[in-house]
Structure formats: structure tokens, C-alpha cells
Amino acid sequence: MTLRRPRGRRRQVQGQAGGGGISRRGFLQAGSATLAGLALARAAAVEPGPGVRRPNLLLIMVDQMNLDAMSGLGNPHVRTPHLDRLAARGTLFLESHSTNPVCSPARSSLLTGRMPTETGVTQNDIAIRAGMPTFGEWLRDRAGYETVYCGKWHLPGSIFMRGFAGFRPLPGGGGQGAVDDGWVTRSCETYLRRRAGESDGRPFALVASYLQPHDICYWMIHPETLVSTTVPFPRLSGELPALPPNHRSRPEGPERARTPYTRFGTDEQWRYYLYCYYRMVEMLDHDVGRLLEALADTGLEENTLVLFTSDHGEGAGRHGNVQKWHPYDESMKVPLICALPGRVRAGIRDTGHLVSGLDVMSTFCDYAGVAPPPNVRGLSLRPLLEDRPTPWRQALVCEWQRLGRIVRTPQYKLVTYGEEQAVQLFDLRADPWETASVADTPAGAALVAEHRRVLREWEAGLDPCPGAPGVGGRE
Amino acid sequence: MRHVARALDGFRVPTGPFDPSGPWTATYDLVERAFKLRTIGALRLERRPTAAGGAVLRFQFRKQGGGGVVRAAGEVFLAADELSSTSGWSLETWVADRSGQDVAGTRARERVEVKEGVVRRTGEGLAARETTLTGPLTTEWGLFDAVQRLPRTPGGEWRFSLADRFGACLKPGQVLATGPALTVSLGGRSVWGEEARPLAAGTVYRPVEKAEGATDLRLQAYEHTGQGILPTTYWVDDAGRLVFAVSGMTGWVLNPETQI
Fold it and tell me: What is the DSSP letter of A395?
């Protein structure tokens, strides 16, 4: 069996930017003015709902999970019954993107609602810009939430120092996913048990930050022992996943676009690598399942908004890639699921709205009944989750590596390579596996120009962090 | 096993009689090689046979984690069958600080009963939860016990569900199969020597690492694959002792000197 691009079989929602797409004129009209102005307009519109019970917030943040690494999306190589159940009782966004496919930059956006260029976290292990609040600080100080965090942090400074960045840390985690993720679950469960016994009326915002399926990184670091040239377990030969359809694709573009991080010599090694990746996703699924069971068994599920997402995806053999860092969808697109019984629509697969890690802060603030911090770039997902009409962005800008940019519109995706002039443009409707750039086709030049204009206007509205690597356009 | 082979440097080959069906105690180092090989935790198992033919397996575990040392202790009730399937377990988990004191608010207890395919879990602050499974259910530590008595006939295969993560995660679709047998040289110490390679223009000498004072140990492998686990190999010596288990980048190495 082979992989197909995920398409919702449940009820689909196609937003304004949805499956019918947007005409060139519509794109031009809707373009970047909408993109820049929406967040501001939405921030002003937030009002605490009188009499509405504020929900607890549970962010389940995972590391390096592909959007389509879920059995519920038709992937035959992995079994994720717990995530599938979560998706069935909530809304799953299929156009969900990382702001930057590297751990720390993406996490800085998830925590602040700002682009990595603004947080200053343009590569791993840089601290978030001083004075830029995380949702931990914001919800604690403005909305009275108890804000707690457990698991992978991956920003400088130990989370265990002085309630770092607005969160009280829970013990657990701190190592690799295969061993430590179980302790993240245990620690969060113990916290939930205690919270269920308290009745001070103060809601909580809990981050359960899992490491899996990030362990797969070490399969590339130590291929000689972890992905040997013969499949180490012969009886698995019949179970190894098929290679993705774009495994050998090297789309036209700058040299580095065609240079994958390939480390494996044989198809069988690639397939064993994928086999291990999907087992890690399953490990994660079971840990998340236990956490969700704890939420239910403590009676907290009924008033807790669960938001599940990943910092970025994984190459998974597509374009011959492993790991992240690249601008293709396998790195950029991530699952994003929201569930809240009775309030968030259940069984929805949203295929039309372009959403991003930027939107977590605004969504949490909306449900907490407070306006988000000034200049957040994200939008609250709440109107989409509750089926209320809302204007939505027509284009989404992401960053990759330090200088690369991606402009995603309903049909197209422009990839820029920093100081290099050459770009890639993919027609995702005709070519969902990104196998051929159409930048140099007769229609491509105008589309590239339009997308570049959107990018310029978006970037003109940002507040770049002085001194951060890559900010200012140079490495 | 190659991935964590360095963990076997200085390995003390176990000697003396061992009865896998009797009472025994074993301690293991938990090792992990992400960037570098590290010992990250330890496990102690103590098996006590029961009059009914099964056994009680007591376990203690520790691992350094963020914010302290995570600890677990409890016991698993094992049936007298090939897979040491379980009729239940009890578990207590907590986090200790550097001085060994509990970190406040981290202690939790739970009990699990398994009866006629229904797994019933209860714990303080939790509503009881029942999960139905088909086929035998065994625990991760129950497997440590089971592989010590399984037949070594090629082609052996056992199917079961796994209570993983100290019973937190019930994973169906598991298969344990007899793997290869091999002899390895263990113990002793690594020394650098030279290997001569004659070429047309002369002899080339290159440095090679050799084990000095090593002991040959014959090992039987059992290979475990299934949902939600990385392929895992259990290595059992001729006496029936489980001496290593390796799963991806983590491994368990028998070490009688390990303290919990």
C-alpha cells in the first residue's frame, strides 16, 4: 500500500481559501492587507464572555510529527487510535503549518504568537526576546490561570529555574522520547489528579511537551548501527512501509533544493527507517492516549480545550529527506487538532483554512477571555472551531532555516532561498507532492511576483529582533 | 546490540547456577546512546514463585529526569504460562530530589486487575477505567521473566498484548519470536593492538581494538516487534539469564552491582 495525501473523509470544512480556491483577482484583492490586518482586528474584538465558564487549556506539543502520520487520515503504515479518537471528537486542520521547521524557532512561535524573526529564535538554543510574553506569562498574569509545563523545553535556560517564562515546571522528561515521554504522561496525570480534587475555580493551562517521534533523528546520526544495510529483523520484511511517491523527486530550484540529506544506501534501509519512525509515532499515540484518559478519568475533560500539534514535521523519505529544516510540506505541515466537548465542533476536517503555530496564543487568549498581547501575528481558531463566520487569512508566511521564506496561498507555495534569486513555486492542487516547480513556466513569473509582494508586505509589518542570526537578511 | 555495545565494556559475565523458574533477583543498568552512550537509570527485579505455580515480580526503577529522579516501585502478578501473562499489578511512582526527599505533589498510586480479558485500573483521584483486550496480556517486566524460560526452538512465535510504560499503555498486536543464537566475547578490557596487512609495496599496520581477558558467552535471542514499540531483542545466556535487552537506542544491561 502507498501513501496518499490526506483528504478528509469526515465532514470537511473549506474556508474562504478552501478547496474551490481563489481566483488570481481574488488573491490580489484579499492578499496581504487582509493578512496583516486580521490579527489586529481580531485582537480588538476579543471580549470575555459574560457567564461563560473559562475552559482549562491543555496543549499537547509533540516533536517532528508529520501531518499524515495518523491512521485516521488513511496512512496504512501507522496505528494511532488515540489521536484518531481525539480528531473524531474535535476539529483537525489539514492546512496547518509550522512557522519554521526547526524545534526552537517553531516553539518560540507556539509560545508567543510571533514569528521566529521577531522572537529572535531563528535557530535552536536561542532565548526568546526579552519582554516578549509567552502564553504562560500572559494567561497567568492577565487571566489568572495556573500555568504549568512538563517535558521538552528546548529554549535556553532550564525550565526548572524560577518558573521560567511564566510556567511552573512539572518534573519529568528531560531525556529522549522512548524512555522519558512516559514520565511526562505520569507527571501530567499526577497533576491532573491533584487539580481534580481542588475547587478554587482557577483554570489551568498545562503544556505536555512530548519528544517523540523526534528520536528518529538519531537514526540518521548513527545509521551504521540503527539502520544497518540489512533489515535487522528479517520477519519485518513484509511489514516495511512503501517509499513515498516523491522519494526520488528533486524539484528544480537552487542547488540546495536538490541536495537531500540522504544517508541511506538502499530502499530497504529507507523503509526500515520509516518503519521505526511510525513505531515512534505509535509510542507517542499511546502516551497521548493515557494522558487523555487521565483527563477523562479525573472529570476534567468536559471543560478542557485540548490542542494537539507538533513543532514541525519530518522528512520521512520524501524528496529523499530525513529530519526537518527543508521547505517542503513534509517538514512544514503538522497536525493540529482541537477538542472541547459541546463547544468545538466534532468530526470536522478543515481542509480550507491556512493555520499555523502562530494561532495557539490567540486561540488560548480567546477562550481565556483576554485580548492577546500586542502585535501577535496569529488568529484565534475559535470562530472556526465553533462554526461562526469569520474572515480568514488568504496567505500564510513561514520561515525556514534563517533566511528562507515560504508564502502559502490556497493553491500555490512560493519558496525563497534567502539571498539567492532562484525560487520554487509549487502548484499544490496539481502537484501535491511538490515534484516540479512551476516558477519558470509562462504563468509562473506573475505568480511569483504576486507571492513576493505578499511576502514584502507581511515582512514590512513585522518587528524583527535586532541582532538575531539571519535578521536583517544576512547569515 | 552494536548500537550500545560500549555499555558492555567491563561486563562481568554471570556465573553459577540460575533457575529461571525459582526465586531470583536481577539488577539492570538502563543505558541510552543518543549522541553519546550514557547510563540513565536502573531496574531491580525480584521474582518470588507462588504456591499456585505463578510468581510475584517486584520491581524498583529509577531514572534521572528533569526536576529530579523519577522512581517507580510495585509488583506484577504473573501466571504460570509461557509469557508470564499478568493478572494485575500495583504501582507507585514519585519524583525524588537530590537528597532523596519526595518532590511535593508527585506521588501517585494505582492498581490494575486483569480478569477474563478486562483490564480494570483504579487510582487515587481517577475514576475506574475498564479496557477489554483479546489474548494474553503481559507486562514489560513480565517479558524479562518470560524470555528466561521460553523454548529455543527456531520458529517459535508468541502473540500477546503488552502493558508498557509501567502499565500505562496497553499495546495490542505484539509478537515475540525466537531469534538467532550467537557467541560473543564479553568482559575483560579493551586494548589497542596492531593488525598487519601485507600489500605489494610492504606491510601496512593499522590500529585495532581488541578485548583482553574476555569470556565467550553463548546467547539466544528473542525478537519482539509490535505496535508502539521499537524492535527489541532480548539476549538470554545458556543458564537462562536475561543478560541484555536492546531496543533502538536504549538497552538494559545486567549488572549485579547496580544500586537502586
Answer: -
